[in-house]
Amino acid sequence: MNHATACPEPDITLCEEMLRVLKQQSFDGIGITRDAYGEGEQQAHQLTEALALKLGLEVKKDAALNMYLILPGEDRQQKPVMIGSHLDSVPNGGNYDGAIGVLAGLAILSGWRAAGVQPPVDVIVLAIRAEESAWFPVSYVGSKAALGRLTERDLAVTRRDSGLSLAQHMRQCGGDPAAVAQGHALYPPERIQAFFEIHIEQGPQLEEQQIPVGVVSGICGSLRYRFAHTQGRYAHSGATPRQWRQDAVVATAMLISLLQRKWRQMERQGHQLTFTCGRFFTDPLAADMSKVSGTVDFCLDFRSENRASLQAIDSYLAHCIARLTTRYGVTITPGEQSRSEAATMSTELKARLQQAADALAIPVLTLPSGAGHDSAMFAVSGVPTAMLFVRNQNGSHNPEEAMNLPDLAKAVQVLNLALWNMLMG
Ligand SMILES: [Zn+2]
What we know:
The structure is a single chain. By secondary structure, the protein is α+β, with helices and mostly antiparallel strands. The chain contains 13 helices and 17 strands. It has two domains: 12-220 and 342-424, 3-Layer(aba) Sandwich (Aminopeptidase); 222-340, Alpha-Beta Plaits (2-Layer Sandwich). It has helices spanning 12-26, 39-54, 99-114, 141-146, 152-156, 166-172, 177-181, 205-209, 248-268, 307-328, 347-359, 374-380, 405-424, and strands at 58-61, 67-71, 81-86, 123-128, 194-200, 213-219, 221-231, 235-236, 274-276, 280-281, 291-292, 295-304, 331-333, 337-340, 343-344, 364-369, 385-390. The strands form three sheets. Strands 1, 2, 3, 4, 5, 6, 15, 16 and 17 form a nine-stranded mixed beta sheet that branches. Strands 7, 9, 10, 12, 13 and 14 form a six-stranded antiparallel beta sheet that branches. The longest helix has 22 residues, at 307-328. Zinc ion binds next to loops.
């Protein structure tokens, strides 16, 4: 029975208090470390579970130890709505990445419970395991497991610091990797009505534009060449005239410069895209001041919400390689390509978030997510999904990561009202 007729306020004090305790628990002397399927993550889960029980929520865990904190609805057979994010962090990271998404959900449920609200369907806060691939070289371990998609092969990877397998770590924490590998999901994707996630932006856009909250338009897919190589020929720097050089550095630098120019051009044409060359090096043993460089090793990382934009820059890359090979007499081998699919956010849910923000007079910016999130796994599994970003300072995955509580409060209010209108309106 619903005893409230107006949308209750979310309990932001709860977020503040929990963030303080989480920080205390997981400060490592430099930053925040909540190691996936290790002590740090365990402690965060225990703290969250204790709070959920105090709030009178139902608590369930799946075989991978993802935690489902449930405000029971009137009809428990109907598809639930979920709010979730992860509680692990990178080593020496920040306190907000991941955790605020779980706390935001609890702040909403706490408000609803205090007002005596029973929603028509279960509303579930999902505390997800092991999102950060800094620990295990598999992306979205927890959400994959929650959706029945974590494989035997994934479970065999080892944690970077301990050398123990994901399965071993999971078992040590009380999980059941054998059951995970069978692909059983407590809530299969077709049985979830919607998934929402609140997360810090991790980039500068909201901060630069002085807007507290973002509605994520989509989560970018990537197209990468991790081990690209240019083969030229070493030669004497003084004795080799320009026309006889096969300079690997010049050819590769030209390639990067052409791609950079193309990126700018594509942006002007309305494409959403990022391009990064994060590694670029000559062989330190063979390269020298007095030598024309014979080799360059490098990598290329392209990201976009749109497959067509990735396709376009990839075709241009092939065209450039052909052109530069002829021009500089080098061989450019991009190497094996790896891709991850972009995740589409639900148009309906994005509109609901936008309407709620408008009603609350909270300014929001629509922007893509260049980083991956648990939401991506839900979206590609077919669950209608939407995300809000909270403005944050000093980037992310570093100890200086920052966020202002009033900005988080605004994002939580937006989600709270959108959820209320969706379920109770
Ligand atoms: Zn995160």
